[in-house]
C-alpha cells in the first residue's frame, strides 16, 4: 500500500539556519504530495503541495520539489525563525483513500 | 466561513461509555475523514466518506462507527470506549483529494 517515510526528529536549529526535512514515498500511480504543519495545540494546516512530477510547491519561505525519480518531496527553508517551531507532516494522495501521512518531524528553532 | 468545526474540544470518558464526536463543515466538501493522532504514530485514518450516504473504513476502524446523512456532517461514534482510544481526533474535509484537506482543531479524548 501507499506509505510515507519522513526523517525522525526532533530537529533543533538556531534561528536563520537552513532547514531540510526529508520525505520519501511509496505509491501506485502518480500521487499528489503535501506538507502540513501543526503548531502546538492546533490542527493541521496545509503548508504547500505539488500535484505532478517536477512541480515545486512553496509558501511562507518553505519549498519542496516533487521528484519522481527519487520518490521524494523534501521540505526546505533557507532561514528558519522561532515562529517556525512546529511539527511537520509529509502526506500523499493517490486517489485510493484519503491522505496518507508520515509520522511527523518536530522542529524546534532557538533564538 | 467557519471551515471544519469539531466538538467537543476535550472529553473524559470512563471505560465502556459511548459518545459521539461531532464534525461539521460549511464548505460543501464531498470528502470527509476522521484521523487519530498518537505520539510517534503520525495520523492514522479511521473512517472516511466520499459523499452523503457513502462511508468506508480506514486503517484503524475497530471500535468506531460513522454515518454521513448530509454533506455537512460526519459524526464519529465510539461504541464502548477503551483506554486504547485515548487520543487526539481530527476531522478533515476536501473538495477533492488533490486539493488537500482542511482540518478541524481536534478533540482530545481521554478514556479512564
From the structure above, extract its key features.
heterodimer; A: 6-stranded mixed β-sheet; 4-stranded antiparallel β-sheet; 50% strand; B: 112 residues; 0% helix; 52% strand; globular
Description:
- The complex is a heterodimer of chains A (111) and B (112).
- Chain A has 111 residues and is mostly beta strands.
- In chain A, 0% of the residues lie in helices and 50% in strands.
- Chain A has strands at 3-6, 11-14, 19-21, 23-26, 32-38, 44-50, 56-59, 62-65, 75-77, 86-93, 100-101, 105-110.
- In chain A, strands 2, 5, 6, 10, 11 and 12 form a six-stranded mixed sheet that branches. A four-stranded antiparallel sheet of chain A has the order 3-9-8-7, with no helix packed on it. Chain A has a two-stranded antiparallel sheet with strand order 1-4.
- In chain A, a hairpin with a 5-residue loop joins β5 (32-38) and β6 (44-50).
- Chain A is globular and about 45 Å long.
- Chain A starts with a strand and ends with a strand.
- Chain B has 112 residues and is mostly beta strands.
- Helices cover 0% and strands 52% of the residues of chain B.
- Chain B contains no helices and eleven strands.
- Chain B has strands at 4-7, 10-13, 19-25, 31-38, 42-51, 54-57, 64-66, 76-78, 87-94, 102-103, 107-111.
- In chain B, strands 2, 4, 5, 6, 9, 10 and 11 form a seven-stranded mixed sheet that branches. Chain B has a four-stranded antiparallel sheet with strand order 1-3-8-7, with no helix packed on it.
- In chain B, a hairpin with a 3-residue loop joins β4 and β5.
- Chain B is globular and about 35 Å long.
- The N and C termini of chain B lie far apart (36 Å).
- Classes of the chains: A mainly beta (111), B mainly beta (112).
